[in-house]
Amino acid sequence: MDGLVFFHKLLIILGFSIPVIYLFNKLKFPSIIGFLITGIIIGPFGLKLITDTAGIQLMAEIGVALLLFTIGVEISLARFLKHLSEFLLTGGLQVFFTFLAGFFIGLILQMSLMQAVFIGFILAHSSSALVLKMLKDRGDEESPQGRVSIGVILFQDIMVVPMMLLIPFLAGDSGPNAGVIIWKLAKSILIIAAILIAARYIIPFILERLAYMQMRDVFVITSIVITLGIAWLTHALGLSLAIGAFLAGLAISDTDFTHQIISDINPFRDIFLSIFFVSFGMILDLEFALENYLFIFAVTLIILLLKTGIVVGLVKFLKYPWRTALLSGVILSQIGEFSFVLALQGFKNNIISEYTYQSFISASVLTFIVSPLLIALAYHFSNGKKYYLPEQTAPFAGEREIKNHVIVCGLGLNGRNLVNVLKETAINYVVIDLNIQHIRDMQKRGEKNIIWGDCSNTEILKRAGVEKARVLVIAISDRFLTKCALSVAKSLNPNIHVIVRTKYVTDIEELQALGADDIIPEEFETSIQIFSRVLKIFHIPNSIILAQGNIIRNKSYGVFRQVRFTQEAFDQISQILAQGTIDTCYIAAGNPNIGKSIKKIDLKAQTGAMIINIIRNNETITNPPSDFVLKAGDQIILFGSHAAIDAALKMLGGTEMEN
Fold first, then answer.
1. Which residues, including other chains, have CB under 8 Å from residue 448's CB and lie 6 or more apart?
2. What's the pTM value of the predicted model, to 2 decimals?
3. Element (H, E) at 122
4. What mean pLDDT do residues 631-656 have?
């Protein structure tokens, strides 16, 4: 029964989210605001469609954990460690100065010393979920403002531990002493280091073993278990789920599995993260907010200006340009989800009054609603005023940009041959393959532009640079994935030239409809090779054979799919065969005609074929005289009907040269 109740809640959340998000999309507002409004509408202080939010909060935490995991993967451990000192410095200064500002505000409002300290605690945090979501939507995680913001929120999350430990002390109880707090903080750092080191060496090994099994469903499940498992472990050891998930992401960053894992987890992350923002809207007491709207608006404005100003000042102090300082300040201006946890504990321990608690919750939710709009405006303003707010090269610069390249999907025989040709001709390429053995074999040969993943996935294709690629070659055997990859690639880059290999005749029309530029059905290409060799036996020139093959390909192999044998067709073939043609034969050592003159052989009288040229020692002798004597190594160019050529080749006893 409990399961059905939970299922009912989930249906209400998702069902109400659809029209609200649709409306906000039409108004060009961020979707986060739509989810928050949905929560306000359906929550216990709105229509009361959902009154018990316990299960919803758990799903919300899972969404944040999955988001932190993907951020950890994309940052990569190497780059994180490289800038760790900067993370600690920026995050430490932000927490300290924001806490100090909150502390003085509490004293100005004539609160007690303990209450003022607590106000500093809850003001110090920004929202991990909102910040990371906004950065990810803009692809700005590796920009200067992205690096600053991520470093700050990670430091804030770590500081939740000592702040939670100090709550009993602030409530007037004995609480832990300074030694206990320092030990807890040191233990947290040791736990983080131990988990990161262990996961770094164990998780990639497990994932590689699963990749060799080539079982996608097991791989996806394992990825989620690893993410949530490490998150749960850190939570059980006294840290947050978010920190654990971030560590799990860092552990597998810089491996061959990162991009495929992100693409597999993204759908789960987006659903749970949506629930997170809806759950935040649910905690707003709408009646209280309306009764005290002037005070709440004032508190909201103070929070936004205070937090923005502190971050802008710090980032500028650290020698960043104005653009980075402004964007970082606005991105971190809202109240964080951990502040809600601290505020609830403070209310339960009688550190703050119910009025203060409700005012803080209302103002915090309002900062959540306003923050995405402010971030959008800040980006718009800074991008339009680049002369005033100069850009800075991102320290987390990604790999060398590749463009006008070929994307090869599949490392089978066709894919490997194509890669070899592209390498020899110095054409840039990126390879995508789901077979880990193929990936490892190519890496051993020094290949670097290789992605382990599903070529039908949007994230994987983007990683391969499909938007700037010139050609996409799909050489995989899976019919469904082939069509998906073609469809996704064309949606991302309508101008990309797509070449598709298929085994199935029935797929040709559908592949054409999906936008394939060239389709190579294996069965029909084999047929072209067969008829080409047959025509060679009848001495049809190569130019005609190639032309016939191209006509068949340009007509999408219709001659094979709808064969029509008519008398007219046979008459055309007969006319071709009746016409004269040119062929070549080679006089090999031991040929009985060596030492004989053309007159003595009398080839034209015997067969009807004429010798028009003889090539000797790379020199061409046109219309050789009748007393010309043949030698080993001569190449004789013959002209005549197909029947005459056959008779001449038989009489000369030579070896026919390939056309």
1. none
2. 0.57
3. helix 113-123
4. 79
